[in-house]
Amino acid sequence: MTAPSAQSYRSWGGLSARDSEIVLARDWIAGPGRHRHPALAYGNGRSYGDSCLNDGGALIDTRGLNEVLAFDRESGLLTCGAGLRLDHLLELAVPAGWFPPVTPGTSFVTIGGALANDVHGKNHHGAGTFGCHVRAFELMRSDGHRLICAPDLNAELFAATIGGLGLTGLVTQVTLQLMPIASAHMLQEVLHFDSLDRFFEIAAESDATHDYTVAWVDSLASGRHFGRGVFFRANHAPGSLEPPPRAARTVAFPPTPPFPLINRATLSAFNWLYRNTQPRSPDERRIHYRPFFFPLDRVRDWNRAYGPKGLRQFQCVVPPAAAREAVADMLRRTLAAGEASFLTVLKIFGTRPSPGLMSFPMPGATLTLDFPNRGERTARLLAELDCIALAAGGRVNPYKDARMPPATFEASFPRWRDFARHVDPGFSSDFWRRVTAG
Ligand SMILES: Cc1cc2nc3c(=O)[nH]c(=O)nc-3n(C[C@H](O)[C@H](O)[C@H](O)COP(=O)(O)OP(=O)(O)OC[C@H]3O[C@@H](n4cnc5c(N)ncnc54)[C@H](O)[C@@H]3O)c2cc1C
To answer: Residue 9: CB within 6 Å of ligand 1?
Structure first.
């Protein structure tokens, strides 16, 4: 099988791989020295910025490493190739009564990508990050060495690789502890809130009673409606696992339009529609896990709505004491800039530490905003949001980013020099070259 052209390897924000040698993982494993240096693994390109791209070097397509190598249905311990996609893992695990312990907002990620970014989900307040549930993995370095890493085996590389943005080598296989479930359904409650203060109150009470919590914020609301939104909280539902869930039906987004469809006018209509189509009564509803965890997966390639220049996502986390003010400042700043964020998500991260040295989450509130890329204008706003997050003692997410300067990275990850000691000398990325250039 021959690999497709570099241009078809993109990040979700719309950047493409340009001048990279595309190497299938099995070919790279057979002879790492035969390919361009530096190398970088590519999962399924669901990172938003340039952390999954490697201009001029080799991009290792891991998606062929997708075998399930072992699955103990009694204990829920699963070993798979790092290129296995989460949606495929779900198809296998859910009918057997098991669920991934942490899922991001899309199921179209690989297990290796989830490990390398140490992704978080709506249950971070209880379950921590993906890396908290990784029991072991195999890492292949550019010199051909293969190492098993676990909390008590090659422990420093274990910690550096979880959340290590793919820079410590190629993860070939992963052993993950799944969590038991009784059904494929969730019991979900939907609560409308009319201010940020109310969001923080609901979050505080819900994190004690619900495994999964997250809120959507109406980023265009101002005046007395400022900070309004919709809070979702859920637990896995009791019941039985039969019949097995049917494959999700998806629709494809039409080809990329010549201009972004997301602007203040369309967003205003969207926000109105979104808020008003959410249930108004706080009753518990039984829904399938897919629309709860992965609502956007129903529309394939929805990022095309942002037009040919793509989108820029911003995600930060700010510590609890500063969270209320910092989140309000960022929303006000976005409004003042005349920008519209389509998917504005607010969530409280918990205190469970990650084993990852460079993991993004820390205790506090995390705010995520999506903007159509309007070049300099968008970059200016994102730089202002960086300043607010950092001044509040927070950090900015590297795998959602395509432009943070070295100073933002260093302030976000003061331990980055410890991490840099573990970076494979034969690995790099566009992101890494940018943030370590200064
Ligand atoms: C709609 C949507 C919702 C999202 N929601 C969330 C969310 O709720 N929480 C969250 O944390 N993230 C979220 N994300 C981001 C996404 O979960 C992460 O970026 C994820 O890591 C992407 O996985 P991937 O397989 O596509 O990897 P890629 O994006 O291709 O790569 C990610 C990183 O992993 C490295 N990598 C990939 N495979 C390997 C390997 N085998 N060995 C070593 N390194 C490897 C790459 O080098 C790169 O640095 C979301 C993204 C989208 C598009």
So the answer is: no
Residue at 17 is within a domain: no
Is the distance from the beta carbon of residue 112 to the nearest atom of ligand 1 less than 6 Å?
yes
Nearest CA, atom 47, ligand 1: 166
Provide the phi-psi class of 372: left if phi over 0, else alpha when psi is between -120 and 50, else beta. Answer: beta
Which atom of ligand 1 approaches the CA of 431 most closely?
Answer: 49
Number of domains in the chain: 1
The phi and psi torsions of 242 (rounded to 5 degrees) equal -90, 150
Residue 202: CATH number of its domain: 3.40.462
Confidence of residue 402 (pLDDT cuts 50, 70, 90): very high
Residue 56: left (phi > 0), alpha (psi -120 to 50), or beta? left
Range of the domain at 291: 185-406
Tell me the two tokens of residue 285. Answer: 């509803």
Domain membership flag for residue 398: yes
> Are 193 and 230 in contact, with CB atoms under 8 Å apart?
yes
Q: Which of 28, 55, 85, 106 to mutate to test the pocket of ligand 1 (most atoms within 8 A of CB)?
A: 106
Q: Which atom of ligand 1 is nearest to the CA of 12?
A: 53
Q: State how far the alpha carbon of 195 is from the alpha carbons of 46, 183, 231, 329, in Å.
A: 32, 34, 11, 14
Determine the pLDDT at residue 217. 97
Q: Indicate whether 333 pLDDT > 60.
A: yes
Q: What is the percent of the chain with per-residue pLDDT over 90, rounded to a whole number?
A: 86
119 occurs within a structural domain: no
Other C-beta atoms lying within 10 Å of the C-beta of residue 4:
10
What's the confidence (pLDDT) of residue 255? 80
Whether residue 210 is contained in a domain is answered as yes
